[in-house]
Amino acid sequence: MDITTFTSNKRFQIWGISLLVVLAALATLPQWVGSYYVVLLTFILMYILITVSWTIFSGPTGYMSLASAAFFGVGVYTSAILFPMTGAVLPLPLIIVIAGIISFILGLLVGALTLRLKGIYFAIFTFGLVLLIQRFLLWFEMNITATRGRFVATLDNNYIYYVMLVIFVATLLTAYFIRRSRFGLALQSIGENEEAAAHIGINVTLVKVIIFAISAVFMGAAGAIMASKLIYIDPYIAFNPLLSFMPVLMAIFGGLGQFYGPIIGAAVFAYLQEFLKTEFPFAYMFTFGLVLVMVMVFMPSGLVGMIQRLLASLKEGPQEKSTPSWTLIFSFLFGILGGLVSWFIFRERRGARVHLKVGGVVTIIVIAFYLILLLLAYLGELRSGYFGI
Amino acid sequence: MLEVNNLSTFYGNIQALWEVCLTVEEGEIVALIGANGAGKSTLLHTISGLIHPTSGSITFLGQRIDGLSSHTIVELGISHIPEGRRLFTDMSVRENMEMGAYPKRAWSQKDQTLEQIYQTFPILKERAGQLARTLSGGEQQMVAMGRGLMSRPKLCIIDEPSNGLAPRLVLEVFQIIESLREQGITIFLIEQNVRHTLEIADRAYVLENGRVTLDGTCKELLKSDHVRKAYLGL
Predict the structure, then answer these.
(1) Which of A87, B11, B110, B139 makes a 20 to 30 Å CA pair with A27?
(2) Which one of A199, A203, A256, A301 would you mutate to disrupt binding with B, by most B Cβ within 10 Å of its Cβ?
(3) Cα A79 to Cα A94, A138, B118, distances in angstroms
(4) Does residue A383 register a pLDDT over 70?
(5) Which chain A residues have a beta carbon less than 8 Å from that of B69?
(6) Whole-angstrom distance, CA of residue A186 vs CA of residue A194
(7) What is the ipTM of this complex?
C-alpha cells in the first residue's frame, strides 16, 4: 500500500483528525472527571475493544466465534499468576504482552482445530472451549493448588484506564489496517464463498487461523489489565460466558456493515447496560432483554444501518420504499417519552415500596403500548416494503 | 506445459477417474468434452489441487504439482475459472477482480492487469462499482473470467463457461476465449457445448465414465462417428 496516496486521501484525513481529537479527549479525560467516570469509561473501552477484535474475524467471515471469554480469561489468569497481590513477578507491560501472546497461541490451536467446522458447529465448539477451560481450571485450582480464587495486585484507576486506552488504540489500528489490507479482502471473500476463495488462490485455512489468532491477542491483553480491576478472580469470574455473547450482541446492535458500527454499538450498549443497572436495578435484565429483542427485529442492519437509512431518506426526500411511516416515528417517540416518564417515577421515589409499584405498573403499561404500536408500525411497514422482507 | 499421467482419483471408495492421460502444449486451446457425470469437474479439481489423486502424476512446466495445495498451484500460474461462476456476490465487480490478483506474484501489478482486462471486457469497467449479484448471467460469467485472469495465469482452466447463457452470449464467450489465446494464454476448456468447442479448440479429449476414450485434433473428432452420434446428435 502506498502510504503517501493513502494519507492524502481526504476521507482518511477527516477521519484521522476527528479520531485524534477523540483520542486527545480520552487521554486528558481523567483530569476533569470523577473517578466513577474513569472506571465506567474503562469498562466501555474494554467492551469496545473486545467487540472490535471479535469483529476483525467474525465480521467478514460470518463465523460466529463464542471464544471471546476464553481469550479474556486466559489474560486474566496470566495476570493473576504473574501479578499477584504478594508482588509482581514481572513488570506489568510485559505481563500484558505475554497474555496477548498466550491468547494468540490458544487462538492458533483452536483455530487450526475448529475452523474446518462451519456455522453453528463452530459457534458451539468455541463456546465449549470457554466451559472446558473454566472447568479444568476449577478442578486444577481445587485439587492441585488447593485454592478457589486468587488475588491480583491492585492499581490506580487512572493507570488501568490509560493501559486500556493503549490496548484500545492498538485494537482499532489493527482492525482498520487488516480490513484495508489484502487479508481483509481475502477474509471477506472467504465469508462470501469459501470455495471460490480457494479457487483464486487464497490459502483459506491459513488466513482464517492467523486472523482468528490475531483477534484473540487483544482480548487476552484486555483480560490481563482488567484482572487488576477485578482484584479477586476465580474461574467463574475470569471465564464468564456472558463475555462470549456480549461482543456478538454489541456488534450486531451497532451494525456489522461499517467499520464504526461495532464501535458505536459497543459504546451505546455498554453505557446502556450500566445505566439500566444503576437506574433500574430490579427491572434491569428485563428492560435490557426487551431492548435487544427490539433491535434484532426492527433494526436488522443495526444502529448504524438505521441512521444511514434515515440520512439517505432525508437527503433524497420522501421515497415510497425508504421512508419510515408516521406510525413508526410516533411509536419511537412514544417509547422514548414513556421510558423517561417511568424513569422519573422510579428515580424520584426509589426505596418507597408504593411508588416502586406505581413505577413498575407505569413501565409495564408504557412497554405494552410501545409493543403494540411497534407491531402496528411493523405490519404497516411490511406492506410498504420498508423492512425489505 | 501440462502433463497428466495415469491419473486416478477416488471419492471415498468410488473411483471417479481411471488412469487419465492428457497433455496441453503451450499456446493451445485443448478441450475436454463429456456428458454429465463423466468426471470432467473431478479432473479439473484434481489438477487445481482441490482434490488429491490416488495415483498418477500431474506435471506443470516440468514440476510435479499433484499433492501441492490449491493456492500454491495458483501461484505457479494455473488459474481455474470454476463452473457456475462462484462470484463473491455481495462484493463489487472491482473487488471481485482485485481478489483474483490475490497471489503475491500478481498483487503488485493488479492495477495494470485490471486495465488490460477492462480492454477485453469493456462492460466490466462500466459495472466496476456494482455489486456482482446485480449483474446479468452473461456479465457474471465475464466477471468470473476476468477474475481468473487477474492472477496472470500461464494456463487457464475454464469450466463450462457457456452454462446457462443465451445463445448469443455463448458465441461472445467463445470469441473471448479465442482472443485470450491470442494474448498468449494457454487454455484448457471444459464444455458440454460440443459443436462450438470443437470449432475453436485445437485438440480435444473425450471423457466417458472417468476414462479418456477418444482424443485427437478437432477435425478428426468432428469426423468420428462416435462423436457425431453421441455428442452432436447427427
Answers:
(1) A87
(2) A199
(3) 10, 17, 55
(4) no
(5) 203
(6) 10
(7) 0.82
> What letters, b where the CB count within 10 A reaches 16 and e where it falls short, cover B185-222?
bbbbbbbebbebbbebbbbbbbbbebebebbeebeebb
CB atoms within 10 A of CB B128: 14
CA B144 – CA B84 distance, rounded (Å): 9
**Residues of chain B contacting residue A198, judged by C-beta atoms under 8 Å apart:** 50, 70-71
* A18-298: CATH, from 1.10.10, 3.30.110, 1.10.3470, 3.30.420: 1.10.3470
The answer to whether residue A387 scores a pLDDT higher than 50 is no
Interval A205-217: pLDDT, tens: 999 999 999 999 9
What DSSP letter does each residue of B21-87 carry, written as one string?
A: EEEE-TT-EEEEE--TTSSHHHHHHHHTTSS--SEEEEEETTEE-TTS-HHHHHHHTEEEE-TT---
Cell numbers at residue B134, please?
446485480
What per-residue confidence (pLDDT) applies to B87? 92
Domain spans in chain A, listed from the N-terminal domain onward: 18-298, 324-384
| Bridge partner residues of B207 (DSSP) | B212
Domain B2-77+154-230 = CATH 3.30.750.24: no
CB contacts of A195 in chain B (<8 Å) are 82, 86
A184, three cell numbers: 481483509
Point out the least confidently predicted range of A352-366, B39-53, B181-195. A352-366
Distance of CA A369 to the CA centre of its chain: 30
Whether the CA torsion B35, B169, B94, B132 is positive or negative: it is: negative
pLDDT in tens, A289-339: 777 777 767 777 777 877 777 777 666 654 444 455 565 666 667 677 777
Q: What percent of chain A stands above pLDDT 70?
A: 79
Average pLDDT over residues A98-117: 92
Tell me how close the Cα of B147 comes to any Cα of chain A, in angstroms. 8
- What pTM does this model have? 0.80
Alpha helix ranges (H) inside chain A? 3-7, 10-32, 35-61, 68-82, 92-114, 119-143, 157-180, 182-192, 194-199, 204-230, 235-238, 242-254, 261-279, 284-298, 302-315, 326-348, 353-384
Tell me the residue type at B109.
Q
Q: What is the mean pLDDT of chain A?
A: 82
Q: State the sign of the Cα–Cα–Cα–Cα dihedral A259, A264, A270, A273.
A: negative
